[in-house]
Amino acid sequence: MIKADVYQQVLKHCTNAGAVLVAVSKTKPVEDILALYQMGQRKFGENKVQEILEKQPLLPKDIQWHLIGHLQTNKVKQVLPYVSLIHSVDSEKLLVEIENEAKKQGRTINILLQVKIAEEETKFGLNADEISIILDNASAGFYPHIEIGGLMGMATLTEDENQVEKEFDQLKSLYDNILENYSMHFPEFNTLSMGMSGDYQLAISRGSNMVRVGSLIFGER
Ligand SMILES: *Cc1c(COP(=O)(O)O)cnc(C)c1O
Q1: CATH number of the domain at 24-193, please?
Q2: CA distances from 212 to 85, 181, 217 (A)
């Protein structure tokens, strides 16, 4: 069961702040997704390729699927036809695979580079040096079938709001830095995806313009 009133509140907060709301529907049934769709939501986030492949045929075709979880290179081919934005590009090897498949499929794929900002060892993501290399290569024309639309990051899972704020600020300043230095190469670089159920308001206040909210809207998983 979705929480319709909470959804409206989150949406209102996002809209007022100029942030895009991605409803994270991982593990949730298609009935719940459809209920939210009927309230106007079109962008849904999933963290597994398999779930997109299973849900997509059962739902309206104008849903925009966002892949927010780690993507293995061997799953790129299957998911590309259905994905509208990949938030979780966390290696150049993956970028190369997406480029090759996108070319074969005759598509341009929108992606975000996932930055490692959390202290936990488990979180995927690139560091600032790796991002520079990728952006230099992209500027040199290595990835004609990829549009680098911005950055994504996940803060440490902690009650310590100062820690989370520090990580958001770090990501925002990297984002601003790229805007300053690469904007001529990437006119479409304009998305900063940060913030989840527990920290989306803080994220927006620290400069996020895309939040990925799941449990707050769909209930606990
Ligand atoms: C699950 C997930 C979310 C949403 O988490 P909630 O706390 O349920 O809002 C956001 N981003 C990523 C990458 C996720 O895997």
Answers
A1: 3.20.20.10
A2: 12, 27, 11
